[in-house]
Amino acid sequence: MKKLKKLGIFCLVVSVSVAMLVGCSKSKDKLKETSKLDDDYVMQISYGTGLCAAPLQMAVEKGFLKEEGIKYELLKSDKSSVDLMMSGKSDTFLEMLPAMIQQIDNGLDARIAMGVHTGCLKLLTKPDSPINGVKDLKGKKIGVPGLASSQTIIAQRALLAAGIGVSPENMEVEFVVYNQPELPLALKNGQVDAIGMSDPSASLVVNSGDAKIILDNGVDKEYKNEYCCVLVLRPDFVKEHPEIAKKYVRAMKKAGEYVQNNPEEVAQIQIDKKLVALGDPTFNSGILKTYNFVPSVVKGKESLIKNFNDLQKIKFISQDLDVDKVVDKIYVEFDGIDD
Fold first, then answer.
1. 3-class secondary structure for 245-286?
2. Which of 167, 187, 216 is the last residue of a domain?
3. Residue 91 has pLDDT above 60, yes or no
4. Torsion angle, CA of 235/240/241/243, rounded to 10 degrees?
């Protein structure tokens, strides 16, 4: 009987050991499979022109993506980056944070990994206007490129902070939609009292003498430390290729820091490579210097939460939305990448 017991115990130990070896073998095979998938994977990156896209542009031009061993293709399309991501054609893009909020509230599944830079949104009025600040906009008409645009959202948040009603039940301003190129003319002709624009167009209008600034989120004490542009990733890309996603975020962090430390060179490259259609290297580098291009994981998350909370206050998004739960789902933080 004792011999049988010992034999039984021996068999059990052997069985467990074999199972562990098989499990380890399968685990190693899975790692090899994932590694092979990563080796073959070619990232699809939505790539566009514009001053604010400097970090992504420099990630390409200065070789930060290749330095991380990332294989990639640049997507240049008339379709929106969000549409490309939803159709599985794009793995990543840069987007203004305010514009993402309503889309996420409406069910968009996306991952945000980092704040990319501050600044780039402005509210303008005529040079001789009695309007000298956001507090003077009560009862006025504000021209914007879209009712859900980042320009509109920063205006609404600033109006809320100034005690001016912007909720559906208490709207104390009127937003009027124009194409962005038409906004300066609408202001000049008196069709609106103020306009919301992004750079470099906004700064060019001011530099021409046709407008003055009443809000600049790059220098305003309420918003200057808030990240207005974020790094967006396709959820399935993060799930299926987490190591590539991590390398990409790290490359973008290096690229942003490069822009911060070399604004003159970056502005020159943007003009030479036709990555920016407006301005000149000297003027554009001056704008770049007003932003903070040092990417931040922590402040990117803080900016996301702040935008959600403000937009709930003005009833721009659902009042039932659990902000903490949503942020926990969409904000992805990679080990080893911090501020």
1. HHHHHHHHHHHHHHHHHCHHHHHHHHHHCCCCCCCCHHHHHH
2. 216
3. yes
4. 100
Which amino acid, residue 16? V
Which of 195, 216, 237 is a domain's end point?
216
186-213: pLDDT as tens digits: 999 999 999 999 999 999 999 999 999 9
Within this chain, do residues 82 and 109 fall inside the same structural domain, yes or no? Answer: yes
In this predicted structure, what is the pLDDT of residue 245?
98
Statement: residue 25 has pLDDT above 60? no
Judgement on whether residues 195 and 239 belong to the same structural domain of the protein = no
Residue 6 within any structural domain of the chain: no
pLDDT category at 38 given cuts 50, 70, 90 is: confident
Tokens encoding 250: 């790290």
Cα 336 to Cα 125: distance, rounded to the nearest angstrom: 45
99 located within any domain: yes
> In 162-226, where do the E strands start and end?
166-167, 170-171, 174-177, 194-198, 212-216
Would you say the pTM of this structure is higher than 0.90? no
Distance of alpha carbon 172 from alpha carbon 136, whole angstroms: 11
